Amino acid sequence: MSSLPTGWRTGIATNYGGAQDGDSPYSPSYGTSIGSCGYGLLDKSQWPYWSVGALSSSNMFYSEGPINGCGQCFEVQCVNSGGQYAGRCNGNGGESVTIMVSDSCPECEADHLDLQALTYNQLGPMALGRMDIKYRRVNCKPPVNLMVDVDSSSGEGGWIRMTVKNAAGRASIKGVALKGSGSSSWTDLTNDWVFVQTGARWETGQQPTGSPFDMQVTQDDGQVEGTGTFQTSMQFKIVGNDDSADIVSNDGAPSHSSSSSSSSGPSSAPAPSSSPSSSGGCSSCPDTPPSSSYTCAQQKSFGQCSQSWMSGYCKQTCGKCSC
Are 211 and 167 contained in the same domain? Predict the structure, then answer.
């Protein structure tokens, strides 16, 4: 286990999801809905409470860390004097927020952070668009345990894709492996960034046989955590001391209401109001979503109905029923 890099870096911050993008800052957009890290639709009421941002693809933390910095946390402070955007802080400077990386910004310069508009607004008026900042990497401190969201699966021996969320400490996941029940060998999942929105997703085309699976999650400093269930009771240790503030709700005080491992996690969509099993009046054509994270209506809105792995799911919603 190792401590985080020390020291501040200087740069600028912009914001997304506000009026300049033609959006409401209270509606999901970009890094809170379709960010390149693949966390999906983030729930504003759960950690990290939309306190998120995007790293430049030229940023050292993007290029040197696993999965391009996804899930890492940074403290960002507004700098009120000495830069090209002087006087744009809410106060006299030093206002601070902690963010989690949920997206990338290919068009940004190396030390340019793009923040969700409400988070930016805690530092300075979002309408001004740009501010001088300094930032440093800090430990992530989610109030919940690691969560694994299975995005898609075609069954034993076939394809499986999943996302690891809510990592604490360094929050730099470099490896995920599965082992079938009764097996002694591990299957390593890959993270190749072949498709957009896959940054924190791990996958294999040959998932183990024999469920339930055992799982190992490895951090870039060698910490390994393992569990026999997908709802975990584990979390990475925070190493070293830092005086950074925790990520807080954009509504004000920190929220720790979701403290058990049964929490749906920060990037889960709102839970469906009814069971994900068959619904409607066609019992021979079930309307079952591939996971509990998104309803069939949401999968359809994401354009997933045409995907081959959806062939056995959401048949009514996707119009695949003959009854």
Answer: yes
